[in-house]
C-alpha cells in the first residue's frame, strides 16, 4: 500500500478543504442563472481526491477496498506497515484508505443530492455506508455513519418515501445510543481524515460536532413522524431537538423561537398547558436574542435594516398570535369544565374544582419536574420569569379568567401592530376574531349580566365595521364567519337583556326598544349569512354543503326563536312575527326529515324546533281568534 509524501498529503487536504468551502460558503453567492456553479466545482475537486486515493492504493476498485477493510482484523500488524495517525487515533493504512474513501463518497453523495441529482446522491451515500459496515460503532467511523444515514433519510423523505427515511434515521439514532453507552469517547469528525496533524480538533470540538450530527437526526425524525401523522412522536422529537440546540448553544435565535412557538400549539391542542406555556416563554426569551428591532427611520435609510425590521416584527407578531391561542384555549377548556347542561356556570362544580386545586397545590412542584424544560443557566431564569406572567392552570373564577384574558389581549395588541388591515387583511381579521373570542370566553365567568352585555358590545364594535367594509366577492368565507358571529353576539345580548328585564316588575319603552333592536340586528346578520349561501340564480340550496350545514340550520333555528321574542302591543305585528317563527322552525324540521344524516349536526335544535311546532300553532290560533273578536 502506497503512502503520500508530506507535500502530496497537504495538497490533498487543501483540495478537500477547498471543496468544503466551495460547497458550504461560496455556493451561497452563486448567481440565479447558475445556482450550482460552486457545487459543481467542489464535485470536480472531490473526484480528483477520490482518484488520487484509489491510485495511491494501487488502483484498487471499490470492491477491493471493501475486501481490504473486511480483512484488516486478520492481518498481522507488523505486516501492515507503519500506522497513520488521524487526530489521536491510530489507524492502519488499509482502514485509513477505506475511511478516507468513505468520507469522499459521503461528500459526493451530499453534493449530488444538493444539486437535485438524487439517484447519483443515493449511490454515493450507499457506497459510504457499505465501506463503513465493517467498522460499526467505532470512534473512527461513528460520526460519518450517522451523518450518512441522516443524508439518506433526507433523500428518501424528499422522494416521499417516509418509511425508508424513517428506517435510516432510526438506525442513526440507535448507532448514537449504542456508541454513547458503550464507548462514549468523542469520536473523530469526518473532516479530520483530511487534516494535517497540527490541525486536529480538540476533544470539545469533536464532541460538539458529534452531538450536532445527532441533533440533526432527531430533527429529521421529527419531520418524518410529522409527515406520517405520528404527532405525539413528532412533538417529542421536536422538543428534544430544541432542547439540545439550547444545551449546545447551536441555534439561530429567530428560527428557534418560531419552532418553539409552533410546538406550543401542539401542546395546546392536547390541553398540556404547562408544556405549551414553557415553549412560548422560551420562544419569547430566545426571540430577544435576535436583537433589537430597528427604528422606522433606520429602516428607511438602509435596505438591510428594513429587511431586519420586517423579519423581526413579523416573527414577534407570530409569537404573539401563539400566545393569543394559548390564552383563548385555556379559557375555553376551563369553560367546558365548568358549564352545566345549558351552557351556564355550574357553581357546585366550581366549588368542587377549587377544593380539589387546594389539595393538589403540594404536587405542583412535582408536576413542574415532569415537564420537559428548556434552557441553559443563561436562559432558564428568564424563561421562568415569563411563565410567571400568566397561569397554566384552568381559571375557576372571573378574576383568574380576567388575568389570562388580559395577557391574551396584550398579545392581540402586539400582533395587530404588524398584521394591520392594510396589507394583511386575512391575518388582521383572524386576530380580531380571536380577540372577540377572548371576550366571549371571559363573559362566561362574569355573573353580572350588565357587564356581560358590555363585553359582547365590545365584540360587536370591533367586528361590525370590518364586516360592513369587506367585499364578499373577494372575502366570502370571512364575511360568512363575521356575519354568523355578529348574529350570534346580538343573540347573546338579547338573551341577557331579556333575563335582566324579567327581574323588573314591568318593562319600560326604552327596554322594549333595546330588546327589539338586538333581535332585529341578530336576524339581519343571520339573514346576510343565509343569503351568502344562495347560488348564482339567487336560490337557497336544496342540499347544504357539509361545511355550512350546521351553521345554516342553526341560523334558521335562531331566527325562528328571535321572531318569537319580538315584543309588540300590535296584535297584527305579533301574528306576523309568530308566523315567521313557525316558518323557520318548520324549515329545520323538514330539512332533517328529507336528509336524515343532518340530524346529528343539530340534535338539540331539531328537538326544540319540533317542540315549538307543537306549541306555536296553538298560540297563533288563539291570537287570530283574539284579533277577529276585537274586530267584531
TrEMBL record:
Entry's transmembrane regions: none
UniProt entry tagged with the keyword Secreted: no
Location within or outside the cell: Cytoplasm, Cytoskeleton
Cellular-component GO terms for this entry: cytoskeleton
Keywords linked to the UniProt accession: Cytoplasm, Cytoskeleton
One GO term of the biological process aspect: neuron projection maintenance
Predominant location category: cytoplasm
InterPro entries: KBP (IPR022083), TPR-like_helical_dom_sf (IPR011990)
Recorded superkingdom: Eukaryota
Name of a matching Pfam family: KBP_C
Similarity annotation: Belongs to the KIF-binding protein family.
Function of the protein: Activator of KIF1B plus-end-directed microtubule motor activity. Required for organization of axonal microtubules, and axonal outgrowth and maintenance during peripheral and central nervous system development.
Protein name: KIF-binding protein
Organism: Erpetoichthys calabaricus
Amino acid at each position: 500500500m502506497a503512502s503520500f509524501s508530506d507535500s502530496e498529503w497537504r495538497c490533498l487536504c487543501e483540495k478537500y478543504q477547498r471543496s468544503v468551502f466551495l460547497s458550504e460558503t461560496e455556493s451561497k453567492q452563486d448567481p440565479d442563472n447558475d445556482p450550482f456553479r460552486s457545487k459543481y466545482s467542489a464535485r470536480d475537486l472531490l473526484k480528483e481526491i477520490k482518484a488520487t486515493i484509489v491510485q495511491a492504493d494501487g488502483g484498487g476498485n471499490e470492491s477491493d477496498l471493501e475486501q481490504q477493510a473486511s480483512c484488516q482484523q486478520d492481518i498481522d500488524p507488523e505486516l501492515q506497515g507503519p500506522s497513520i495517525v488521524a487526530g489521536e487515533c491510530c489507524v492502519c493504512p488499509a482502514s485509513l484508505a477505506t475511511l478516507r474513501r468513505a468520507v469522499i463518497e459521503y461528500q459526493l453523495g451530499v453534493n449530488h443530492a444538493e444539486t437535485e441529482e438524487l439517484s447519483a446522491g443515493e449511490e454515493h451515500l450507499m457506497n459510504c455506508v457499505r465501506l463503513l459496515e465493517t467498522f460499526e460503532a467505532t470512534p473512527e467511523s461513528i460520526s460519518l455513519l450517522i451523518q450518512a444515514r441522516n443524508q439518506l433519510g433526507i433523500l428518501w423523505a424528499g422522494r416521499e418515501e417516509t418509511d425508508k427515511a424513517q428506517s435510516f434515521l432510526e438506525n442513526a439514532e440507535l448507532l448514537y445510543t449504542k456508541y454513547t453507552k458503550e464507548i462514549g469517547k468523542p469520536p473523530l469528525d469526518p473532516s479530520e481524515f483530511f487534516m494535517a496533524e497540527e490541525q486536529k480538533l480538540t476533544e470539545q470540538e469533536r464532541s460538539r460536532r458529534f452531538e450536532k450530527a445527532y441533533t440533526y437526526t432527531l430533527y429529521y425524525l421529527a419531520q418524518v413522524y410529522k409527515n406520517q401523522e405520528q404527532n405525539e412522536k413528532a412533538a417529542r422529537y421536536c422538543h428534544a431537538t430544541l432542547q439540545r440546540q439550547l444545551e449546545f448553544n447551536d441555534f439561530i435565535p429567530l428560527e428557534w423561537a418560531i419552532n418553539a412557538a409552533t410546538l406550543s400549539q401542539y401542546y395546546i391542542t392536547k390541553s398540556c398547558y404547562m408544556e405549551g406555556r414553557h415553549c412560548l416563554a422560551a420562544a419569547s426569551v430566545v426571540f430577544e436574542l435576535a436583537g433589537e428591532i430597528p427604528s422606522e427611520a433606520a429602516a428607511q435609510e438602509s435596505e438591510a435594516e428594513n429587511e431586519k425590521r420586517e423579519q423581526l416584527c413579523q416573527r414577534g407578531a407570530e409569537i404573539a398570535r401563539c400566545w393569543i391561542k394559548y390564552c383563548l384555549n385555556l379559557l375555553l377548556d376551563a369553560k367546558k369544565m365548568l358549564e352545566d347542561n345549558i351552557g351556564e356556570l355550574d357553581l357546585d362544580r366550581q366549588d368542587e374544582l377549587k377544593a380539589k386545586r387546594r389539595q393538589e397545590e403540594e404536587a405542583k412542584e412535582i408536576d413542574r419536574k415532569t415537564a420537559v424544560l428548556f434552557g441553559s443557566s443563561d436562559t432558564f431564569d428568564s424563561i421562568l420569569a415569563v411563565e410567571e406572567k400568566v397561569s397554566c392552570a384552568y381559571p375557576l373564577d372571573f378574576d383568574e379568567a380576567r388575568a389570562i384574558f388580559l395577557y391574551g389581549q396584550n398579545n392581540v395588541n402586539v400582533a395587530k401592530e404588524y398584521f394591520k388591515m392594510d396589507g394583511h387583511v386575512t391575518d388582521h381579521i383572524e386576530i380580531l376574531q380571536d380577540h372577540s373570542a377572548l371576550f366571549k370566553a371571559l363573559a362566561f365567568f362574569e355573573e353580572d349580566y350588565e357587564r356581560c352585555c358590555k363585553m359582547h358590545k365590545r365584540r360587536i364594535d370591533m367586528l361590525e365595521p370590518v364586516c360592513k367594509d369587506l367585499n364578499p366577492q373577494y372575502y366570502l368565507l370571512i364575511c360568512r364567519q363575521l356575519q354568523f358571529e355578529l348574529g350570534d353576539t346580538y343573540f347573546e345580548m338579547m338573551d341577557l337583556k331579556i333575563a335582566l328585564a324579567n327581574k323588573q316588575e314591568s318593562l319600560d319603552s326604552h327596554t322594549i326598544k333595546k330588546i327589539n333592536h338586538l333581535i332585529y340586528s341578530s336576524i339581519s346578520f343571520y339573514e346576510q349569512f343565509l343569503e351568502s349561501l344562495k347560488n348564482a340564480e339567487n336560490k337557497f340550496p336544496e342540499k347544504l354543503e357539509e361545511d355550512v350545514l350546521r351553521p345554516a340550520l342553526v341560523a334558521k333555528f335562531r331566527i325562528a326563536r328571535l321572531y318569537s321574542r319580538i315584543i309588540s302591543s300590535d296584535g297584527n305585528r305579533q301574528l306576523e312575527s309568530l308566523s315567521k317563527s313557525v316558518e323557520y322552525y318548520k324549515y329545520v324540521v323538514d330539512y332533517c326529515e328529507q336528509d336524515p344524516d343532518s340530524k346529528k349536526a343539530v340534535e338539540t335544535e331539531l328537538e326544540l324546533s319540533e317542540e315549538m311546532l307543537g306549541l306555536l300553532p296553538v298560540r297563533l290560533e288563539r291570537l287570530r281568534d283574539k284579533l277577529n273578536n276585537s274586530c267584531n
